[in-house]
Amino acid sequence: MTLLEMDDVRRTYRLRRSIFGHSEEVHAVNGVSLVLHRGRTLGLVGESGCGKSTAGRLAVGLEAPDAGQVRYDGVPMARAGTRPWKDLRARVQLVFQDPLGALDRRLTVATQIKEPLVIHGQGSPAEHERRMRVLLDAVGMRPDQAAQYPHELSGGQRQRVVLARALATNPDLLVCDEPVSALDVSIQAQVVNLLGDLQAEFGLAMLFISHDLKLVGCLADEVAVMYLGKIVEQGEPHKIYAQPAHPYTRALLAAVPDPARRGPRPVLTGEPPNPAARPSGCAFHPRCPIAVAICKTESPALLPGADGRVVACHLAHDGVRSSKAGPS
Ligand code: SF4
Asked: Which atom of ligand 1 is nearest to the CA of 314?
């Protein structure tokens, strides 16, 4: 059953570049369509600055789209700050990268886990206490840690507290934006496993945003790869990892250390281009090792392939290659 839909969503920022009032437009999200079903996980991956975090903020109504529509449970997303949006926030929770920044250093773990219940007026103080104990246990913390403050905990424990607090109101959807990238590598796997367990236990849907394609694959039922505000490939992780169809996806996967890999690695050259000066045609063409002439002039559409995935590349679809390929 569909929970969250983003339909051709666009978000543009106008950046002021000089004291003379010159400004430029940045198309942070440029026509993204996504569907997330109840109890499922959608991974959104790409380099820093590709628009994935903006897409996450649009998905929960923290930002309003300039065009397109975000629907939650079939209803258009309410504007941030309105009463319907505040009610919805109990059902949609966010987990960010920095757990210390997300927690209040002056409040105990117990107070912070109960806080959303107090804000949303759910239950009595005794029920808040019971729920806090259940959640503390669910995220693998000891009962005595309820009395501790954030600075007394490790990074992994703090993120566990953030997760417990996010689950307090029994949400339908968890939006996790780089939830483990600030943690030690040894702790990352624990928190990712915990997220998987919590999702199964609480029946959550999850939008998992990360730059790490492999990490996303550990959790996601479906993966969407973003480049400069657009989705360039989307499908089931095992298919994408076994045979990435888009050169950008191939490069992201190649960047993941793998001692078992044989042969040359496709190298992604150059920095991501300036989003305010989007390249013509396929935005990836200045970095693409297989670009052909048409790539500089025509933006490839996101088209379905034979195995159920969608790909935006002139050379990824059978029958298209021969007619469009030419020297770059
Ligand atoms: Fe590379 Fe062209 Fe495909 Fe873009 S459309 S990814 S430039 S081959």
From this structure: 5
